[in-house]
Amino acid sequence: MRRVAIVQPVRSAVGAFGKTLRPLAAADLAAQVLTALVDRTGIDPATIEEVVFAQSYANSEAPCIGRWAALAAGLPVDVPGSQTDRRCGGGLQAVATAAMMVQTGAADVVVAGGVESMSNIEHYTTTARWGSRSGNQTLYDRLERGRERSQPEWRFGKISGMIETAENLADKYGIGREEADRFAARSQQNAAAATESGKFAEEIVPVQVPVRRGDPVILDRDEGIRPETTEQTLAGLRPLIPCGTVTAGNSAQQNDAAAACLVVAEDHLDRLGLTPLAWFEGWAAVGCEPATMGIGPVGAVDKLFRRTGIGFDDLTLIEINEAFAVQVLAVLREWGLPPDELVDRLNVNGSGISLGHPIGATGGRILATMLRELDRRGGGLALETMCVGGGQGIAALFRGASA
Q1: Locate the Thiolase N-terminal domain: which residues (predicted)?
Q2: How far is the C-alpha of 17 from the C-alpha of 163, rounded, in Å?
Q3: Which of these, 73, 78, 19, 69, lies nearest to 47 by C-alpha position?
Q4: What angle do CA 192, 194, 195 make, to 5 degrees?
Q5: What pTM, to 2 d.p., does this model score?
Q6: Which of 1, 44, 85, 374 has the fewest beta carbons under 10 Å from its own?
Q7: Could you tell me the maximum CA-CA distance found in the chain, to the nearest angstrom?
Q8: Quick check: helix, strand or coil at residue 162?
Q9: Which residues are marked as active site?
Q10: Helix (H) or strand (E) holding 279
Q11: 18-49: per-residue pLDDT in tens?
């Protein structure tokens, strides 16, 4: 199979829920990032053979968002697009899907990415089409409903949402509030330091947000980072479930963002004048119990390591999506890796707790951040892994092109 290059992974800044990016629909946000990717790489849009985009909270305002965004970005009409969804792992799945297309010769150049506008996730009803004889129509919040219905209740019982799954891990692995808050504070401090040092400047493409009066607002800085966060400030927050460990401060945020990259066959790089940032080495996905969905990275990474012969000692960087602090800590428990021994390799620039978790875009956001950090360190191997609502894990390995 052909070697697969990752070229110019970029992302928007991550918008806070209901804040600056709220006026932008998901498809328009995706189109802006896709346009920026084409501009930055200088690629002839006619050479793009597919646009694979992830979105977890899709709707009919922009069906098949990969195709919709490609058209909105001005790509030629004959460039096809598709949509993928593996919930939290959708953005990484889009990259893996694009890589397999290139490896097998189905395509030479593919755009892979993801988008989510959680601020614009709608309410809906399942009973209005055919009417109701009497009584009220129920409007569901798609954002919350997707978390509640992540598994068949008849088989696994009722799970109130992702917070419950995190508390299950805290109980199982004996993870206390103090440990969770310490990890969350570290995430915020890492993200704040990365922002102030300018680390994110290269990966973020400015996004224009229309306003009612005046010129568009430009967002080019992540909105969810709280530099003042400490263990002490987090300790004052109330748990989301009484007597629990999970709080708003040690959980991932819900956000708006888009991310994209080029996935290219090695033997076409010179022809297209493209320089790889990294090489795609492999990927794996597994299922796990929905009630402990956060442990999904353990099985996915084990499967990936068995396939590739790689181990933790071979890794320069490790990225876990930080759905919850207790989720990351439970995964590290299973791996036998104490957090204090990974301070220079694990989520070194923050992640979901600090930068945010715009579901379908998170895989691409992590990739853009991780691969540039890998390049700054002179190359090596980087692992990206994520838990997935409903009980899954996904993981992928990348080798820096500068190695």
Answers
A1: 4-267
A2: 18
A3: 78
A4: 65
A5: 0.97
A6: 1
A7: 68
A8: helix
A9: 88, 357, 387
A10: strand 278-287
A11: 999 999 999 999 999 999 999 999 999 999 99
DSSP string of 94-153, one letter each residue: HHHHHHHHHHTTS-SEEEEEEEEEGGGPPEE-SSSTT--SSSPPPPEEHHHHHHHTSS-H
Where helices occur in 174-246 by DSSP H, the ranges are 177-196, 231-235
Assigned token pair, 273: 């004048």
Q: How far is CA 19 from the centre of its chain?
A: 19
- Give the type of residue at 301: V
The DSSP bridge pattern shows strands 81-84 and 50-54 to be: parallel
Across 169-203, b (16+ Cβ under 10 Å) vs e yields bbeebebebebbbbbbbbbbbbbbebbeeebbeeb
Q: Helix or strand or coil: residue 319?
A: strand
Distance CA(53)–CA(97), nearest Å, equals 10
Residue whose pair of structure tokens reads 């990969």 in the numeric block: 66
User: What are the tokens at 133?
Assistant: 């004889």
3-class state of residue 22 by DSSP = coil
Q: 231: which strand partners?
A: none
> pLDDT tens for residues 240-289?
999 999 999 999 999 999 999 999 999 999 999 999 999 999 999 999 99
